[in-house]
Amino acid sequence: MKDLCLIDNSAGLSDVPGFELAGVSCDVRNKGDDRLDLALIFSHSPCKAVGVFTLNKVKAAPVRLCEKYLRTGGEIKGIIANSGNANACTGKEGMENASAMAKETALACGVEQENILVCSTGRIGEQLPMDKIKAGILSAVQQKNSSDEQSLKAANAILTSDTYSKTVTVQVSCNGKKYTVAGMAKGAGMIEPNMATMLAFLATDLDVSTEILDKVLRKGIKGSFNAITIDGDMSTNDTVVLLANGDSGQLVEDDPKSELYQKFEAAVEMVCQSLAEKIVSDGEKITKVVELNVSGAASPADAEKVARAIGNSLLVKSSWYGEDPNWGRLAHAAGYAGADLIEEKLDISYNEIPALVGGMPRPEYKTKWKEIVRAKRFTISLNLNIGGDTFRLLATDLTEGYVNFNKSE
């Protein structure tokens, strides 16, 4: 969209006026190292806030706490997040520890406990080392500022098996003024909606009601965080939070046809899509990113079923790793997806090179298929030729490196 400028690999949330951040080390993993593992995000002004969380029925304590605080509709001042320990399946003590993280951060920042959201990511089933966490919180509060350095430290502090931090900024120009939407995220494994083993924090300096924030965020994640898969697993801690501190003094009116509303909505989508792309590209031990485009489906649900059946098929993912354009595996996965499908109408192509047309193979293009699947990224398109609905999914291959990496903790 015109007047939107995406800054890839930016400093992240420090680009949004009114926010301070910090990333510190407090040895959450109990390994005696100085790895950054605690992040603080803090706004000078109270924020309107919304969140979207995992649909897993086994939910981590911080997820339950965030849901509780956001249900009250109160304003949020900040987020405290740790990596290295998910605080999931930790019972009553885990809930108490999540609450203590909010309380300690609130006391150090001079705000109310309900003004602080809590997020965790890492290993399931272990209690947090709260003495270390509390010391880390005090250190983070002392170090927080609006510098790019601390913003990037915060982005690094939430990483687990990621190999790099994930940040993006979109500058919005409207009526001669500039506004900002920025985000940071983590995620590399257990990636499957809804959403992924991921944390994503977005912020803007616009003044936006919680009702609009919720609509815009849910639309933004639909084609981004909820349209990616690495290994088909859903985590216990998935969280996306969007904060609006109103620092710019500019209100986004509840009019989807207004210019600022549309630009804000587009900016949030751009941030979500960029972060989702980074998550997939950093999948655990992957070598390929594959864009699956399904069209011609009888319904949106059918299009998604076909895309997910292919994107999560171990046979398909293994063939991608082997650089084998085995379109037969694509066809068979599409066939068992549970969608309306007529074999004689099915088209499959690699990039734009046909592999199957009207259910009939096109072997004369085999050499070209092989060239395409050698690339680190390529596109596979399936047209069911039944209806008009579509779905796009970003997926990855499956490697022995993934198995070795995950066979033990």
Provide the gyration radius in Å: 22 Å
CATH superfamily of the largest domain: L-amino peptidase D-ALA esterase/amidase
Q: In terms of structural class, how would the helical and strand content be classed?
A: alpha+beta
CATH class group of the largest domain: Alpha Beta
Query: What's the count of strands?
Result: 15
Regions with little confidence, pLDDT below 50 for 5+ residues: none
Output the helix-strand order: EEEHEHEHHEEEHEHEHHHEEEHEEH
CATH architecture of the largest domain: 4-Layer Sandwich
Number of helices: 11
CATH topology title of the largest domain: L-amino peptidase D-ALA esterase/amidase
Q: Overall mean pLDDT score?
A: 94
Number of domains: 2
The fraction of residues in strands falls at: 25-35%
Task: Specify the biggest β-sheet.
Answer: 9 strands, mixed
Estimate the global geometry from the Cα principal axes. globular
- Measured between the Cα atoms of the first and last residue, the distance is 44 Å
Q: What share of residues is helical?
A: 25-40%
